[in-house]
Structure formats: structure tokens, C-alpha cells
Amino acid sequence: MSWFTREIVEAGKLRLFCFFVAFILAFLFIRFSVRMIRAQVSWWPGNITPGGTHIHHVVFGLVLMCLGGISGLAVTDSRSWTAAALAMVFGVGTALVLDEFALVLRLEDVYWAEEGRLSVDAVFVAAALCGLALLGVSPFEISDAFTEEQNGDLLSHGEVVLLVAVNVLFAALTLLKGKVWTGLLGIYLTPLALIGAVRLARPGSPWARWRYLRKPRKLARAHRRERHLREPAARLMRALQDFLAGRPSM
């Protein structure tokens, strides 16, 4: 309990911690629920269809996000349990929305289609970024701007701009090279973005289309790396997705 008080409450992370816990639990619950509905088990409630209209859980998610977010803005004490409870409401709503992210993006029901994996990816990315924030890692290494150096001085405005610009450049290059996970996590971890920026691009990425068309050897290396490294990792990720969220059927 002393660790929780010191590292979470006193560090001002209570709302973020409650959001993170509620987000994870809500995602696991809703995936369990839809898998039970998909299996048509008799003891689990089915879809909500008043008047024959199927109400997707993204609708409830939007309502909860508005309720938790707007009400949370009215709470001045960020360390109060009221603020924590509203953060949990917001976390539940966010999980419900992101779980149907692919549906919202495509404006069609692709929940159990292969395209529906995008929703699970969105949840994984959000959970990873939230977890990094809980660990005290700030986006673009911006916390360095507010941390005194050994001589007691803060970074100047020019140094802050340079720090952020370099991080943005590395992350953008990584994303252009088709490394989405590395690029997004690189927003928080500059060394990771640097590694992604200097290494070979994925063969189907914008960078490969721009830079590798006249470099057949480099493009061939990219394809070999995709087969030997990326595809096994992708299979492992799909297996994890299927275990947690269910295998697509369409």
C-alpha cells in the first residue's frame, strides 16, 4: 500500500492508473461477452436489439467517454476518489470504442472479419502507451525539458524544440518505413525510434516505394527480412490476438 501511495497517488498518477485498469478489464470483459454471443451459449445475454436495431457497444462507449470525460473536467482534485472513479468510467468507454475501431473506420460491421484485427491492434497500442505513461515515460522525451540538469539549469526553449523535433523526425521516418509499433512506441522512447529510422524499411511501406524501386538489392533484402523476421512475429501477434479476442471467421 505504501508503494501505491508513493508511486501512484503522490506522483499524481491515480487517474491514469484507474483509467488503465478499467480499460484492460473492460476490453477483456467485452471480448468475453462477444465470444459468448458468437458461440450462442444459452446462459449469456445476447445482443441488444431494441426494435430490431443492433446497438453496437461503441455507442455505449461514446456515452461513457462523454460522461467520464466531461464530469472529470469538473473535478478539481485530481487525487480524489471521485476523479479516480470518473477516470475508470472514461477507461471503460475508451475500451468499448477502440474495440470497434475497425467498424467505425470502415463504417461497416467487420468485427469478425480479418479487417477487424485493426481494433485489437488499436487496443494493444493504447494499452502500451498508457503503460509507458504510468512508468513515467513521457512523449517526445519532453519530461527532460522540466528536469534540472546537474548544474541546476533547465533546458532552454531552443533545446526543447530541438529535442522534440529530433524525436518527431525519428518517429515519422520509422512510420514511413512501415514500422507502426516501433514508430508509435518511439514517440515515448527515442532510442527505439532511432533504431527504426536507420534500419531497413518494410517492402510495402511508403519509404520502400519511394527509395527502393531503383535499388533491387535493397528491396530484395527487405523482402528477405520480412519473411524471416516480420512474418514469424506477425504470426505470434495474430495468435495472441486470437487467444484474447477470438479468431476472425469472415
From TrEMBL:
The chain crosses the membrane at residues 12-34, 54-74, 81-98, 118-142, 154-175, 181-201. The keyword Transmembrane helix applies. The keyword Ribosomal protein does not apply. Keywords: Membrane, Transmembrane, Transmembrane helix. This is Membrane protein. It comes from Acrocarpospora phusangensis.
